[in-house]
């Protein structure tokens, strides 16, 4: 499909020219499909993800012409950096729109749109390691106060995450883009807190300011963003990446929301009793407010019928 060529990297050309074993081809397929994850993983982490030995990963690197896995990983990272050289985060909105249309097509066909969304969703969930998800959940679970923010197109994802997290964690604070871009609210964070931030290009200095602030106060910074090359990554303790590019002029938050919901799903078993108590109390308050299906149909007027 259109757009998948971007996901390939320097490894693909070398693989075409090499004679590989069955297990080495599995490693190649994994790295080509997950360049960003492979570019920040150890050989042992890649081996575990593929289901082969650490030695097999090293042999694969040598089979395609590298001295070892470190050199392969560095080449992948350099390739990703080169792809980002024009600076997706620096494109004007019109330039980004035209670049997306050139890569993904118009996106006007429903099947084409669905295929792209499904691809982004699966890739995003699988390109982050289980260890990274676990680190993220631990940071949130262990925090006394969890601050959540996401501005512009990411605000909806942040709001949805904070709303559900509030059921599972004692003190959740959603930061709005007010008070010097959230600075006034985040100044209350300390070393016992966690800061969850949703971000996608274009990247703003005001976002960097918040991550620096949280880091300077000793809080754990958890970032969900669209690339490991984001300038915000440097200030985060744990990073998860989500595909956001699509054919239209705006970033898609489908995959970002899915990652947030997966994190909440992982956290839920640790907070089962809290959730059950919350659900019982909430049901007590809302029982009288729920619309009964039979009641809702009473007095309904058919189209064209005068009441």
Short description:
The chain is α/β, with parallel strands linked by helices and 307 residues long. The protein has a 5-stranded parallel β-sheet with strand order 2-1-3-4-5, sandwiched between helices.
Layout of secondary structure:
Blueprint (H helix, E strand, L loop, with lengths): L3 H4 L2 H8 L4 H12 L1 H4 L4 H8 L3 H10 L5 H15 L9 H12 L5 H18 L2 H13 L3 E5 L4 H14 L3 E3 L4 H8 L7 E5 L6 H12 L3 E6 L12 E4 L12 H14 L4 H15 L6 H5 L10
Helix pairs in contact: 3-5, 3-6, 5-6, 9-14, 10-14, 11-14, 12-13
Strand content: 5-15%
Biggest pleated-sheet summary: 5 strands, parallel
3D shape = globular
Question: Helix and strand succession?
Answer: HHHHHHHHHHEHEHEHEEHHH
CATH architecture of the largest domain: 3-Layer(aba) Sandwich
Number of strands: 5
Class based on secondary structure composition and strand pairing:
alpha/beta
Helix content: 55-70%
- Summed up, the helix count is 16
| Uncertain spans | 1-7
Report how far apart the termini are.
Answer: 53 Å
Q: Mind telling me the CATH superfamily name of the largest domain?
A: Glucose-6-phosphate isomerase like protein, domain 1
Q: What name does the CATH topology of the largest domain carry?
A: Rossmann fold
Evaluate the radius of gyration. 23 Å
Count of folded domains: 2
In round numbers, the mean pLDDT is 83
Structure report:
With 307 residues, this protein is an alpha/beta fold. It has 16 helices and five strands. The chain folds into two domains: 80 residues, Arc Repressor Mutant, subunit A (Orthogonal Bundle); 176 residues, Rossmann fold, CATH 3.40.50.10490. It is 56% helix and 7% strand. Strands 2-1-3-4-5 form a five-stranded parallel sheet, with helices on both faces. Helix 13 links the parallel strand 3 and strand 4. The N terminus is likely disordered.
